[in-house]
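[retry 2/3] LRAT domain: previous attempt timed out, resubmitting with same input.
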Amino acid sequence: MGKVSPDELVHGDHIYSYRRLYSYSHHGIYVGEGEVIHCTKTYESRPSFNLKGSCTCGFDPNKDHGVVKTCLQCFLSGQKLRRVEYGVSSKRLLLKRAGTCSTENSNEAKTVLDRAEKLLREIPLANTIWSLTTVKALLGIA
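[retry 2/3] LRAT domain: success.
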């Protein structure tokens, strides 16, 4: 599916954006109301992305680490919004960049959201970084 606009998102969508010239992608779960549950790095200080007053969640990348819930703008950090596509054919999978689609089907949105909220409650300051494997486990396709 690739690039999407924020108004196309639905609760439980697996979203991502590329970082550092496409060297890796940052994944999260869209929970609605413009918010995303995702995991941030815990080991490096970085400059705050200038949101020009549009951020209302109060996220500070130099203080808030581990599993966090932020606004979509903070999750994206100025990058393009993308959504992982599930249930694609094997041929399509071979043509796409790794981590952008899967032949597996995702769990229902409620299950995905419950799992993401549980991680947020139980390990809010976990010393972990979400990988595609972590998000797939949330979606029930590990």
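[retry 2/3] LRAT domain: The radius of gyration is 15 Å.
[retry 2/3] clearing retry counter.
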